[in-house]
Amino acid sequence: MEKHPTNDKDLLLELTIRPLEESEIEDAHELAWKVFLEFEAPDYPPEGVEEFRLTLKNEEYLANLRYYGAFADGELAGILTIRETTNHICFFFVDKKYQRRGIGTKLFRYLLRDFPGENITLNSAPYGLPFYKKLGFVETDTEQSMNGIRFTPMEYRQTV
């Protein structure tokens, strides 16, 4: 567990980042769905929105994910999940009221401590592309679409 002060327009948040407990995973999925609907779904056809919804219920897809959470003043403000077998980030969402406060960056930096020297991949939705580039991810291919989900494959290369 790591605590970070986060300052935004004179609002100081007590931010705690830690692995999520099993009992918190459903809350993480609800946050992912809420943020997806607000920021990503407008760029997707109905097929893509339904595909994402089904993914959040797909036990096979969700198996073996490691979940991390950022808690702002005790409230789940952001989540990040990674598939450990492939070092692939599957979900990375920050609640609208906590965006642009450094929470996503701190979540990612926390994750990197658990994967020293490892390259990390993800498929960025159009909305997240500028954020991931700012973190240091590079595009490994052009934008693609699968089952209505638009994404750009990206990789973060760590140096030891």
What's the topology here?
Blueprint: E1 2-8, E2 11-19, H1 25-40, H2 46-55, H3 59-62, E3 65-72, E4 75-83, E5 88-94, H4 103-114, E6 120-124, H5 129-135, E7 138-139, E8 144-146, E9 149-156
Parallel strand pairs: 5-6
Antiparallel strand pairs: 1-2, 2-3, 3-4, 4-5, 6-9, 7-9, 8-9
Question: Could you explain how this protein is built, in words?
Answer:
This protein is α+β, with helices and mostly antiparallel strands. The chain has a single domain (2-118), classed as Aminopeptidase (3-Layer(aba) Sandwich), CATH 3.40.630. Helix content is 31%, strand content 36%. It is built from 5 helices and 9 strands. The chain has helices spanning 25-40, 46-55, 59-62, 103-114, 129-135, and strands spanning 2-8, 11-19, 65-72, 75-83, 88-94, 120-124, 138-139, 144-146, 149-156. Strands 1, 2, 3, 4, 5, 6, 7, 8 and 9 form a 9-stranded mixed β-sheet that branches. A hairpin with a 2-residue loop joins strand 1 (2-8) and strand 2 (11-19). It starts with a strand and ends with a strand.
